[in-house]
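Please check these two lines:
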Amino acid sequence: MSSPYEDLIFDVADHNLRSNVEEPPNTETQKFFKLLHSAQKPIWDGCSTHLEISIAVRMLSIKTEYNIPRDYFNDFVGLMKETNPAGNLIPSDLYRTKKLVFKLGLTARKIDFCINGCMLYYKDDAAEVICRTCNAPRFKPNSGKQHRPKKDVQYSRLFYLPIIPRLQRLYASMSSAGHMRWHKEKIIKSGVFSHPSDAEA
């Protein structure tokens, strides 16, 4: 019986891989099987509650929900790793946690924006360094030494989640594809208002 995380991995890749596991794996398939292995492996021998991938997803979810700073996250994860049985698969820091979950896809795009919220530094404006509306600088003053200048640090940045990969994932998953097609395939009952789309408007 497959776990929800195992089903998620197959959704990321391709359902055909379930029936073609005997074929010699190419590079992409090798990545897939490595991720699938993470979805099947408990964080330590005998653990029945969490897998390597599930603990990483849960940890990042908690970090996001409570806005936990990186250093606090790393310290807490370090304590978790120390107090669990030796050889456990709990990621040791935020970098390794993100690296594991990153393989699931659905990455976010980082876009700089004006500190006053006037504009995005995006597409045609991606190279701009001063806001066209309020003339506020895009980057913080560079305090690096002349022989080794520091990297530019933006005042404000947002995370854009592209919609197309998420829609593809919803249609690829057996558990959500039916819901995505509901408006097309629903059975309409005369005189029954079951969804706002049934209204004349």
The CA atoms of residues 98 and 197 lie 39 Å apart.
